[in-house]
Amino acid sequence: MTIARFPLGRVVATPAALQALIEAGESPVTLIERHVAGDWGDVDEEDRRENDRSLTDGCRLLSAYTLVSGEKLWVITEADRSSTTILLPSEY
Fold it and tell me: What does the alpha-carbon distance between residue 40 and residue 35 come to, in Å, rounded to a whole number?
């Protein structure tokens, strides 16, 4: 059971991100569970610290995950926690 460190709001994904997940045989739920637990994935140390600060400061949260296919996906929760989006970095 994952303990949520922040609210996700409405969870959505772009068609391209969903296609990448299907092709990799991975579930979006896994990425969302990691993100909401504070496992920021493949972000650098500076982004990791920024995310940790954003938990209390109420800023945007960004996680990056590499699928088994090698495709990278981002999970972004907006600063107001109204929504969380799974997308390809090129779609940002």
Answer: 6
